[in-house]
Amino acid sequence: MFETLSAASADAILGLIAEHRNDPRPEKIDLGVGVYRTAEGATPVLDVVKAAERELVANQDSKAYIGTAGAADFNSAMQALVFGTTSPDKRLVTLQTPGGSGSLRVAAGLILRSSPDTTVWVSEPTWANHVPLLGGAGLNLKPYPYYDTSSHVIRIDAMLETLRSAVAGDIVLLHACCHNPSGLDPSAEQWRAITEVIVERELVPFIDMAYQGFAEDIDADAYAIRHMAERVPEMIVASSCSKNFGLYRDRVGTLSILSADSKTRDVVDSQVNNVVRTIYSVPPDHGAAVVSLILHNDALRSAWVGELTDMRERLRDMRVLLNDSLLAKVPQHDFSHLVRATGMFCFLGVSVEQVARLKKDFGVYMVDSSRINVAGITPANVAYLADSIAATVAGG
Ligand SMILES: Cc1ncc(COP(=O)(O)O)c(C=O)c1O
Asked: Which domains does the chain have, with CATH numbers?
C-alpha cells in the first residue's frame, strides 16, 4: 500500500543542518538551529536539571503509567508559573503534555470537538510548524498581519483591524513572548489593545508560550496570559519547558484551558483528557518530574532562575554585539531591530539572494527568510559574522 505515497517535503532546517555539517570551512557559522547554545556551541543539560535528575533516580519508586493528565504536582506548579496564581483556579484545567507541540495538538483536538468550523487566526509570519500542526489536525486557519519585513516593526494597526473583522467565537493564536520567527512582541499597551478587541469581538485567545523567561523574566513574559485571563471568559494556553528548562528531547509542556465557569471546566476536563487518550494515552513522565522537583524546591528553583537568566543575558549580549559590530562596519544599514527583538530568533533582514551568498561565500547558514538563531553567535565568531554580513549587504 505504501507505493501510493510520495516523499514528504524535506524540512528546510534539517537540510540546512546537514549542509552546515558537511561544510569543511572552519569559520562556518550555523544560525539555523532551533536550540539554545552556549558560547562554546553546546546545548548542555542545565546543572539544576542534573541535580533534580539525581534526586529523581534515587527516589523514584515506580514507572507505572501516570494518568492522561500527567502528574498533579507538576500541573499545579506549572499553572502557578504560567498564570501567576497562588491557588488553583476553579475555571482552569491544566494538563501535562509532550512538549509545546503535544499541547498544541491536544488543543486542536479539543477545538475540533467543540467548534470544528471555527477559524483560528495565526500571525503572518508564525512558527514554521504552527500551520502544518494545527492545519494538519483539521483546523481552519487564516493569517492576520503581524510583522513588517521592511521596517521591522509589528503591524499593530493592521493586526487589530483584521481581528476586528473576526466573528464571535473565532480563535486567535498569539505568541506570549519571543515571537518566533520575528522576535518582536507587542508592548504591554499593545497587549491591552489586542485584549480589548478580543473582548469586544468575543474571540478566544489561544496563547502559545514556548520561551517563558527568555525575553524579560518569568512574570513579565507571561503578561499577555495573565492580563487576558482576568478579562476573557475562555482561553487556551500551550506552554513548553523545552527551551527554559533545556528539556527539548524529554518532551515537557502543559495545556491549560480557562472555561466560563467551573461546571463547564469539569466538562472540558473530561473531554480534553479523552482527547489525550485517543492520541498518545499518557504523557512522558521523566522531564515533567524533573521540572516539578525544581519548581517545588526553593533552592533548585532559584538555581534554575539563575541558569535561565544566564541564557537570556547571553542571547541579549550577542544581539547587542552583532548590532554594534554592524553599525561600525555598515552604518548606512539599520540593524537596530536585532536589539529590539528578544529570545532566540529574529530576522536578520536580508534578501533570499543575500542569504544564499552568505552561505556560499562565507559559510554563514540561515533559513531563506533570513531568520537567525542568535544563540549561534559567540564573542569569538561575531567579528567574522559582521564582516560577512557587511560584505554581503554592501554588495547589494
Ligand atoms: C512558537 C513555538 N511554539 C511551540 C514550540 C514547540 O516546542 P516543543 O519543542 O516543546 O514542542 C516551539 C518550538 O520551537 C515554538 O517556537
From this structure: 10-45+302-390 (3.90.1150.10), 65-296 (3.40.640.10)
